[in-house]
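Hey,
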Amino acid sequence: MQIKVYLLILISFLSVKGFAQELFPKKELYHVWILAGEDLDAGKLDDALQLYRSHAEYPNFSQKIRQITRLKEILSEGEKLRKRGNYAGAVDKFKEYRKLKDIGSLGYFESRIEDCLGQINKRNIAELTAQQRIITGFEFAHRGRQKLSRMDTVGAKRDFNNARVLGGNRNNVLKEQYAEGLRVTDELTRWGSNYHKSQASGLPLPQQIALLESYRNIRNIDIPDIEMRIKELRTEAEGIGSLSGIARLCDSELLIRYVSTHKEKITASGFLLSRLNELNSTLRKIRMLRQDTLNILTVKSAYASLFSWIDEMPQEIRTDMRTCIQTEYDAYIATLPSVSPVVIPAKPAVECKGREDYERGILLIKKELYGCNLLRARSLWIANVSYLKDCDNITEVLNQHKSLGDSITRMVRSDSLLRLYREQIQKMVVAGECSKTPGVYERMKLLKVCNQEELNEEVRRGLAETRKCNNISWWKPELVAGFAGVVPKYKIADKKKEVENGWTGSAGVQLSYIDHKNLADFVIGVEYFQSSYSSVDSYQSALEDFKLSGMNGLLSIKLHQPNTNPKRLRPYLRFGPEILIPISYEYKNYSQFQEVSGTDQLQKTVLSVTGALGIEIQKAHFGAFLECFGNNGLGSIYNSRVSHMNTANQKIDARISKFGLRAGFRIW
């Protein structure tokens, strides 16, 4: 973390100093590359994608963007297999990420593979197909080799035995791998036992070195820890026992080991050790990146970081380390076409004259930081560091105010990410993808900024707006009206009676549950209606007039395509029961000159069923629909227990069907 504090600061300082401008364009490339790599390793593919897209114009960044698309496919397909219990298939799928160019080892995918292997070990191996056993066997063999390089012989033997049990004689290549692995494991175990016995007897240095080197007689194995111990003993045997002496060997790992074992002799050893670890990590990454010419600019950016960090090293190793890195950089540049090595001269050690100005500057920086003037605070910090450029004890001085540097770097980085997140949210809202914004707001919440309360309030408001945006379901009242043709069906004493079609009109309100995410909506409503129809004789002259009015209650389900856009029209299918409640009834018989009014002859309620096809638009504060509907009565409108004057005490069955249009709207 500490080295990251000064990564941006001292890189910026180099740019201010004005040298090597052409040598190191886009100095932030490596920093962004590392941050994206960390997200990639943690399985935060979308976060990594955003960082890679920030410099998509560079070939190696655009390559990673393409790789993330493939990683998402692998992850999705692997998860499907894992959830179905096909753990062997999932292992084979997750392993495909290793085939991507320069991808390295990704912890998130390796943990998925590890989990699947654990599930396979819990199951009956007989349940696996031959192909599944071979696939899983290869993975156990791969993990066994990794454990051997860490001298974990117990774990390696367990993995190779698993590969043997699974693979058997089914695949010759797998058989060779686990047989060779078991051989190496047994030999390494015996070697380790002999080594520890010999160590107890206190061997001289030359014999200790020879004993360690004897592990190389075991074919097909390389153990970094043993190789490092051999280097340590050799330097000790050669009388190289100082920090500067180790630095001249240009071996960062050996230098780290020396500082770790001689902390009490080195001033600010913890600070130096953290810098060396970051430097060594960067060197390893550089050596991997150098293998592909797509990474040229990122490699140069990484070297820029290395050169800037040298100024923080103790004076006694500063020149030697600069020479080591310069030599390695020159060798790299020499491999590139039309590029000449650029020598960055070592700075002579002079008396530290800027300490007083540096301390005064710290007070100004704190004041600007307190006022949340981040850009001003950063520019002052960069200028402030420049006061110490000639100081031999720059490491110790910077270490005294490292928390201030941490705060500036963290807040500047958070401020940059905050702008990036705001842009993402704006694009999502414009694209109508507000359901994706909560994840961005959650990442914003984790940022440490100067005005934390203001950010928290912004996140709170944003999440509230997101909930409104995502809440595309409402209970809404609507005004409705309809007009339809009436088709009466009359039977008197089981004899059909000719009745003319009529009309009916209605108006009322309905309460609708509107849900754009799901398949179904619900409607409950009440309407007042009036209807009129007639019966005729053979000459088409009116014999009877019927007028009916009342209340109509409905309960319906509306089916529509799920996940629709509230701002667009959508078709739907509506169906459900209705209850007719007569309030007024008038009957006129022109042949008998009789009239009836009142609802004594009618049922109290009449059940019917409705089906409709419609189209609607339903926004949060506006809605409208238009539908064609049909309604069929399920029972007679007359009470069979009451005598009707026009039937001469005969059984009457009168049902009404309706076909028409219905519309509604709301502005709330």
